[in-house]
Structure to design on (199 residues):
């Protein structure tokens, strides 16, 4: 698991980081401690494009749809469409109450399992939720996503494919950098497979 300073450095290119108090959480259940730490110590805040909308959170350009990590005061609203449809008072039956969406990519959620602490990834629109293990903990998940974004940002023309997204050298570089972050090529391969990154 990365330490806070490393995670802050990885997220720094993707929008302003601003410490946010746990009191910004608008949910009815207590905020999990790892999220309290993430927002108080690092604080994904992002850019403000329109005053009425406010900050958009950290927006990671990983190729294709970006991965969006909202500011804390918007995290509860992010659960709409997953945990409930029109009101938190009417939860959807196929969404366990211990799942909390912490980021999304084009509607596909990264889910913190608040019982075990691991992060799952799922595709929306499949008829039912079938999340896959993505990372063993929240900080590793976010650090890995930021590592992919930071690496993707540095890819050269020979590593990018206008049709497929990445050439084999581009895929290899993403894998190499992610493996360095995770400490294991096997772990990197399993994570990218769960995400179906450019498959």
């Amino acid at each position: 698991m990365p330490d806070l300073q490393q995670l802050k450095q990885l997220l720094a290119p993707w929008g302003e980081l601003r410490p946010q108090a746990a009191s910004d959480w608008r949910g009815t259940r207590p905020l999990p401690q790892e999220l309290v730490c993430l927002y108080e110590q690092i604080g994904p805040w992002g850019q403000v494009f329109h005053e009425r909308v406010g900050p958009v959170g950290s927006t990671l350009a990983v190729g294709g749809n970006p991965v969006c990590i909202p500011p804390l005061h918007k995290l509860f609203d992010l659960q709409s469409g997953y945990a409930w449809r029109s009101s938190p008072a009417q939860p959807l039956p196929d969404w366990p109450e211990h799942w909390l969406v912490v980021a999304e990519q084009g509607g596909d959620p990264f889910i913190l399992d608040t019982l075990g602490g691991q992060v799952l990834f799922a595709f929306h629109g499949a008829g039912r939720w079938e999340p896959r293990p993505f990372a063993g903990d929240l900080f590793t998940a976010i650090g890995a996503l930021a590592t992919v974004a930071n690496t993707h940002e540095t890819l050269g023309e020979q590593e990018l494919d206008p049709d497929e997204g990445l050439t084999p050298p581009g895929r290899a570089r993403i894998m190499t950098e992610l493996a360095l972050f995770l400490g294991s090529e096997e772990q990197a391969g399993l994570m990218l497979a769960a995400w179906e990154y450019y498959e």
